[in-house]
Amino acid sequence: EIVMxxxxxxxxxxxxxxxxxxxxxxxxxxxxxAWFQQKPGQAPRLxxxxxxxxxxxxxxxxxxxxxxxxxxxxxxxxxxxDFAVYYCHQYNSWPPGTFGQGTKVEIK
Amino acid sequence: EVxxxxxxxxxxxxxxxxxxxxxxxxxxxxxxxxxxFRQAPGKGLEWLCLITHDGRATFYLDSVKARFSxxxxxxxNSLYLQMNxxxxxxxxxxxxxxxxxxxxxxxxxxxxxxVSS
Lengths: 108, 117
Description:
The complex is a heterodimer of chains A (about 110) and B (about 120). Chain A is mainly β and about 110 residues long. Chain A contains no helices and eleven strands. In chain A, the strands form two sheets. In chain A, strands 2, 4, 5, 6, 9, 10 and 11 form a seven-stranded mixed β-sheet that branches. In chain A, a hairpin with a 7-residue loop joins β9 (about 85-90) and β10. In chain A, about 35% of the residues are buried. The model of chain A has no long low-confidence stretch (mean pLDDT about 95). Chain B is built from no helices and eleven strands. The model of chain B has no long low-confidence stretch (mean pLDDT about 95). Classes of the chains: A mainly beta (about 110), B mainly beta (about 120). At the A-B interface, β4, β5 and β10 of A face β5 and β10 of B.
């Protein structure tokens, strides 16, 4: 099973600042990597797929990069609605794919 | 607009059974593979099972394979999860989700299953 490790576990950021979240795979997943956002009491929402392609309706301040085993989600200027938990998900090994444990982005 | 609405979550005793439903709308249901996921309280996301667009193939997480069964009715745009021999560790929020080319692109809001004596 491919293990996905996200870092940091939590991140305190001021509104307007940049947030950088990392996700590492235990073996190569090519570009088959997605990022999800989950707010309290809500379902996950797809942000990025194919490591760098924004999903429909996702603002340009969200960007993804990386391939192979190292991936990054960058939120260029945090808005109040961006404080949430973010999960990476590899779907190279499918089914079922595997999730990272999540990074919680909190208000500083 | 894609909508997935789960239902059927309740409080159930250990060893009990439950059937969850997911009503889909806003897309051509019979064209897509569908999944069930769950999230234990305060924990991350866990994949449970999937069913192909035509219902001919299913895949399960090993720990639920003998107890859970996924099915679908394409005439009713509905997905189901039959859960038997429930355990306390099955407690959580259960989500149905739509897949497009291996990407999970839409999720429902979830239905809460509590297994407790």
